[in-house]
């Protein structure tokens, strides 16, 4: 601009110079505008960064201020809040590290969110500090939370540098390093808050263990229903096992009292009570399974009575531990204390029922009455669960709800027949069938109601399900009275009570039709699809087995026992893959036999297509479980996973096998050759999985440290969902092992300190 002006020199005739002056003037104006915009942006960002840093520093200062405890809050509540805030901080900082490379312009907004999350974490941590037990733990939490704030300040400053210099790779690497530091500090905060809640943590672990026990008992019950629960080797007689079962049941009552009292005690007392209760219920479940096996499949009803009784006790204990966790540290007037008392009463009632069942399980004369009583109690518990705000256990739609009413209709018909005959075997059969039917109806109804378009439709569906279950419970109570004191007047009431159940079923069906709404399409599922899916499952299993047969155990420099174990893994896994392949082929043959005999309809909308759907799902689960087992065996042999992954996969194979056996048993001829081969194949799978689990558990007990699990990619919705569930179970098992080693290390440190 200066040179152009000098050249023009104010000469009006120098038109060429005038154009240069004008061009230079425009360029100068644009440059000044760009500089002004840049300075304004830098000043604004600097002010924003300073404000965020000031907020973090002020939050750090609040950590040193004493906070008054809220009357309706305890340490567990603040712990949950702190966990959530810590998770949010980690999420934002990971996003910053990613966007620092891909979209630096978004870092300011993410930094703002990170600052807010840290401030919330501090407020939650202050509440935890006000309710925590132990000065040492409180000091540790305060220090780790303050250190996290320093790390957050660094990452906020570095994010500003990245925005100012988006092409500077060194600054981006520095942002990544600071982000890793924040993630590390978050883990320290989580560890500190967990150290202050050993009781709460123990309750969480206890509930997870009990859920695993319940699942194992359900799998055992499936084998029992399929007639495959028989003793292997010398298991002794039932009277021998009865002594252990009764003694352990009495110990459960003492554990219940200890849990209730621990709610008003320290975290250490709560942890000790929860751990003791879990150990007792684990032993009880093992004793009952041995006792049930000693009865053999010839007395299937007695086996189911025992397994159902101990499963109810385990589920009730899980609810009790959850109630104790919520009530811990709260006042006597708090509503959670009332829930704790109710859970304790329910636990004692379940134990008493189990004691009666164990004492009289071999008495066929009163077996039906006990089954009725257990079923009535179970329906009452299901109705309480149904009315609670807990999420649905399954995912279901309107058509699933309509299908679930079929079980109620069948159970109602059997109940009326049992009431008229008065035979214990009929009463026991209708009770077991009704228990399962009502549970399935309520679970399905609650899940289907969530998909309602409006609140009125949802309320109608929930009310219909509750009324139907209540009507069926009333029918069972009438039958119970008839069995105890039979009379013509009571039997005359059976048609009226049965009609109430039928009306309830009709209301459920109508509510389901309303839930469908407009434009709902019913998917067709004929029996030919069942055979196709079974063949595909068999092909999938055979392919996995072929891949497994090509594996070889890794070689180590020293010849030790680990080499033998790896060979044992491969051999056992091959046996399981081979057995499941034979099982699915047997199921295919059984399905073809039923179609040939005319026991199944080929109509797409027939009721038999529902059976085919269950068979397809069961076959897919077997294929998914077997494929996952082969992958797990490969990872363990290659040293890329621990034995926990293999144990979980093997148990999943056993569970899915039991479901396939039951699906095939629904319409099968018990005396046919195909059914006999099916039972033999199922028993082979069960035996092979138990062998592999025992071997893996023995090796797992000698393991020193865990390595991260590799997550293989799997195609298909069924296998993907199945894999996610297994990975979560593996992670739980891994964390529990780490916890045990940490406890042992802590005990060692305390002993060494005491020695000095």
From TrEMBL:
Gene3D superfamilies: Alpha-catenin/vinculin-like, I/LWEQ domain, Talin, central domain. Residues 518-756 form the I/LWEQ domain. It is found in: Cytoplasm. Residues 12-25 have a biased composition (Polar residues). The keyword Ribosomal protein does not apply. Keywords: Coiled coil, Cytoplasm. It comes from the Eukaryota. One of its GO terms (molecular function) is actin filament binding. Residues 1-25 are annotated as: Disordered. GO terms for cellular component: cytoplasm; focal adhesion; plasma membrane. SMART domains: ILWEQ. One of its GO terms (biological process) is cell-cell adhesion. Residues 719-752 form a coiled coil. PANTHER family: RHEA, ISOFORM B, TALIN. This is Talin-1.
